[in-house]
Amino acid sequence: MNDKWWQSAVVYQVYPRSFADSDGDGIGDLRGIIQHLDHLKELGVDVVWLSPIYASPHDDNGYDISDYQRIDPLFGTLDAFDELLEGLHERGIKLVMDLVVNHTSDEHPWFVESASSRDNPKRDWYWWRGPRDGAQPGEHGAEPTNWGSFFSGSAWQLDERTGEYYLHLFSRKQPDLNWENPEVRGAVYDMMNWWLDRGVDGFRMDVVNFLSKDVSLPDGVVPPGALWGDAYPFFAQGPRIHEFLHEMHERVFAGRDDRYLTVGEMPGVDIAEARRFTDPARGELDMVFQFEHVDLDHGPGGKWDHRDASVLDLKRNLAQWQEGLAEVGWNSLYWNNHDQPRVVSRFGDDGEHRIPSAKALGTVLHLMRGTPYVYQGEELGMTNVPFSTIDDFRDIETLNHYAEAVDVLGQPADEVLVALRRTSRDNARTPMQWSDEPNAGFTTGEPWITVNPNFPQVNAAAARADADSVFAHYRALIDLRHRSRLVSAGGFELVLPEHEQIFAYVRELDGGALLVLANLTGRPAAYDVAALPGWESAEVVLASGGTGTTGLTGVLGPWEAVVLQR
Ligand code: TEU
């Protein structure tokens, strides 16, 4: 594969609600982002992915869109948007928008029309079905299928007026669009072209592997102890998904140059499918977000059911993806986004070893093959949040889960809270910590969600002034990817594969090689230098421990990471 620009690029995700508030209403906005562009420039990222800023009732913080071509007044205006785009482009940074077209808001005019009567011309733009055979609308168990929503409860909502149910894989305010209908697809492609013509550089596509459903809508198997059937086989990688994504490519990107980036968010996708989605010869997507490594600490009961993931689990899984996409396809590399708890609290150590563990995790991620994504605050080693009561949470998934677990399943509230503190998406959504000023410098008003109380220690002003900070280390990692084709294009080989503490791999290209060695535990880790032949006198190009690192010593300190080149 010829080098593509995004192989040596790093993407930074901005979650606008929590990035920076310029007008004191407690909610981040576009001008707030504009005021902090130099932070991104200094970090050295190539692309910003902006989570949704479109008009929305904010049932799911903007992932419920009521107008794809308007900016929500909470965030600003189209003028402010153009200014942001210009400010980024002036700094050589591209802007990728969030594309949320598996569903709209129920307040989108398309849905309002669709719901207005059974014979409305837009009725078929969404998934409408009558009650199950013989059942009355609204009756217990009358839903057309036994599918559950990601946000608890049934995936079907009865519309009293027309006596039919509509499908919503997420909240009831996020009805699923019917991609079988060519008018729906055409309307989406027009909207995408409108944004690209305005100057944006691509799209991150929300749950894009869910667009094609099995139109017979079968019931799912109900797992033991679960309330709902498992519908995943009927909406993920559905029968027409590759056709739809290829059509989108043809209708939106094919006639343009190759400055754009497309990344598909794909919960549950496996290696074989990911290879198909990203095979350049097929003309679908540039890369995917897969979920296997961030699902490793989920038990049989799903995301709220924690199990420990070992270093072996993590590195084996990441290495499988490296090998699986080695010849064909491309992967995204991420630990964090707005849906995941903070990596330093999850796979690292957010206490004594916060800084070295954040650096070690960043190192092993960034130097693999793929395009790394940094989620706002990750470059500071931001941590999970000590939420005290259910009233501290804001996320619909979290709040609905709490209500269902406590009220329907009768689980003890304090146990459910323990799971929320560990896993809730709100851990990623507290305000960006800019400084040690009130509210971490995020807002002069009352923040929409609590600020992590560790902001006096963990903040951008302190990190930018400290040569040994997580920020400085992320800068160095990004710089290394820019400079080294070993990182952007080299092959990948796992070394010390059975080591229970160390994640180590070699990147090789044209006779040169990089060795990445990281201890992903808080205990010293000894290794056999003889198992790494040829690396004894290699040069250290990057180390998490700062200065004084001297190549292969046979032992790594707690969370120590070192990168050698020969
Ligand atoms: O997320 C899709 C998704 O399946 C999950 O990661 C989801 O966030 C949830 O945690 C599952 O347990 C995307 C967006 O990233 C997310 O913010 C939205 O809420 C969701 O789609 C609906 O648009």
TrEMBL record:
Alphabetically ordered keywords of this record: Glycosidase, Hydrolase
The family database entries (CDD domains) matched by this protein are listed as:
AmyAc_SI_OligoGlu_DGase (cd11333)
In terms of NCBIfam families, this protein maps to: PRK10933.1 (NF008183)
Name of the protein in question: Oligo-1,6-glucosidase
Query: What InterPro entries does its record include?
Result: GH, GH13_cat_dom, Glyco_hydro_b, O16G_dom_2
Q: Which residues form the Glycosyl hydrolase family 13 catalytic domain?
A: 13-429
In the record, biological process GO terms are: oligosaccharide catabolic process
Record-listed E.C. numbers: 3.2.1.10
GO MF terms here are: alpha-amylase activity; oligo-1,6-glucosidase activity
Q: Which organism is it from?
A: Leifsonia aquatica
The first-level EC class reads: hydrolase
Q: Which domain of life is it from?
A: Bacteria
Q: Name one Pfam family in it.
A: Alpha-amylase
What is the similarity comment for this entry? Answer: Belongs to the glycosyl hydrolase 13 family.
- Does Cell wall biogenesis/degradation show up as a keyword for this record? no
